[in-house]
Write a structure and sequence with these properties.
The protein contains three helices and no strands. It has one domain. The protein is mainly α. The radius of gyration is 17 Å and the shape is elongated. The chain crosses the membrane at residues 6-26, 38-57, 63-81. Pfam families: YtpI. Keywords: Membrane, Transmembrane, Transmembrane helix. InterPro entries: YtpI.
């Protein structure tokens, strides 16, 4: 199953990308929006890591740890998604506002 390590790596790279973009941005609204997007990818990283642990080891302990990781990942991604939707609307309002 090569798909889970690839998804883990892509999620980790995108998480790091958005965290670096937060430091490069000076606008607090943009920073909040990028932070919410990074939370989505952190949640997906934890989610796929939990699934991969169970698929790789297939023991009861890895099942329990995997379930905990999946739940934490889903929770983190859900919170990031909700925040991203909120900040996306605010960010679009901010972008359409005329600059003076």
């Amino acid at each position: 199953m090569i798909i889970f390590p690839v998804l883990i790596l892509v999620s980790l790279v995108l998480y790091i990308y958005y965290k670096v973009m937060i430091f490069r941005s000076g606008d607090p609204l943009t920073q909040d929006y990028l932070n919410s997007k990074s939370k989505i990818f952190l949640g997906s990283f934890i989610f796929f890591f939990g699934i991969n642990q169970y698929v790789f080891y297939q023991t009861k302990l890895s099942l329990f740890v995997g379930i905990v990781f999946v739940l934490i990942g889903v929770f983190q991604a859900h919170l990031g998604w909700k925040a991203s939707q909120h900040y996306r609307a605010e960010y679009q309002k901010h972008q359409t506002r005329p600059q003076s």
